[in-house]
Design a protein that fits this description.
By secondary structure, the chain is α/β, with parallel strands linked by helices. The protein folds into two domains: about 160 residues, 3-Layer(aba) Sandwich (D-Maltodextrin-Binding Protein, domain 2); about 80 residues, D-Maltodextrin-Binding Protein, domain 2 (3-Layer(aba) Sandwich), CATH 3.40.190.10. The chain has eleven helices and 15 strands. Strands 1, 2, 6, 7, 8, 9 and 15 form a seven-stranded mixed sheet that branches. Strands 12-11-13-10-14 form a five-stranded mixed sheet, with helices on both faces. The longest helix has 16 residues. The protein is globular, with a radius of gyration of 18 Å. The protein starts with 10 loop residues before the first helix and ends with a helix. The structure holds arginine. The site of arginine has 15 residues, from strand 3 and strand 7. It comes from Paenibacillus helianthi. Belongs to the bacterial solute-binding protein 3 family. Pfam families: SBP_bac_3. It is found in: Cell envelope.
């Protein structure tokens, strides 16, 4: 399934985009990529990442060397955090709306999943410094590109959004909009293709990746506004030790220009 670009409409595409659903709860160990530290430690500690790998170029499934692998720039950052800690990274692919609960109950140690900071999330979990910023976008069927060129034009229409996301909140604020909330972005794309919803709100980079790889979709000129356009990493409330380590790695990665590098590489990978 590494040739997204060659796929067209239909079930082949569906199967490709929906790998994220079928693989829920399947652990994807990135042990081989962590630092040499890991090998030298007798009982290596693990760092469990919770993510919703339906979100190219942040986190998505890709066949690498014949093996289904979770890749993306969030994953690159997670690997660096684990390496800096001398820990082995374990990845859990879950629905986005379950991630913060998994954190609070201690089933995952950190959430990196294109997570936007909101006042409610700030109350529920610990949030890191912002590591990247992006804008929101509106995705529609190509023929409707001009019809839905403003936020006003979305009033009263059928909108598909990810459950528990800030996009769901944005959509709730659109007068008369009829919402379909779904667990994975790939499911929303299917709804768009089959005319069950007329538009979706997504982060710009995700919208670009899907539009590049799915025939018949387009990004409109409508610009959804959000209070915070940055992404943060979540930890369990009170886990200040881990938060400190995460922020230290983020500071290093930013200073080294690594995050922009990871974003560029992941975007390229998502488009292949
Ligand atoms: N940034 C949005 C939010 O925090 C959406 C994130 C969705 N992430 C994902 N991996 N599907 O609500």
């Amino acid at each position: 399934m590494n040739k997204w670009g060659k796929l067209s409409l239909g079930m082949v595409l569906v199967a490709g985009l929906m790998t994220g659903c079928g693989n829920n709860n399947k652990n994807n160990s990135a042990a081989t990529d962590t630092s040499a530290n890991t090998a030298t430690k007798a009982a290596a500690k693990t760092l469990t990442l919770g993510t919703s790998a339906d979100f190219p170029p942040y986190e998505f499934h890709k066949v690498v060397d014949g093996k289904d692998t979770i890749v993306g720039f969030d994953i690159d950052i997670a690997k660096d955090i684990a390496a800096d800690m001398g820990a082995e990274l374990v990845i859990k692919d879950l629905n986005f709306d379950s991630l913060l609960n998994e954190l609070s109950s201690g089933r995952v140690d950190m959430v990196i999943s294109g997570l936007s900071p909101t006042p409610e999330r700030e109350k529920a979990v610990g949030l890191s410094d912002i590591y990247y910023k992006a804008e929101q976008a509106v995705v529609v069927r190509e023929a409707d590109k001009d019809k839905f060129a403003t936020m006003d034009s979305l009033k009263g229409i059928k909108l598909g959004v990810q459950t528990g996301s800030i996009q769901e909140d944005i959509a709730k604020g659109i007068e008369g909009a009829q919402l379909t909330s779904l667990g994975k972005i790939s499911e929303i794309v299917l709804q768009l293709q089959s005319n069950r919803v007329d538009a979706s709100i997504m982060e710009g980079p995700v919208a670009k990746a899907f539009v590049k790889n799915v025939k018949g979709l387009a990004i409109t000129d409508a610009k959804p506004e959000v209070a915070d356009d940055g992404y943060v990493i979540g930890v369990k409330k009170g886990n200040d030790e881990l938060l400190k380590q995460i922020n230290a790695t983020l500071t290093r990665l930013k200073a080294e220009g690594k995050i922009d590098e990871y974003v560029a590489a992941a975007s390229e990978l998502a488009e292949k």
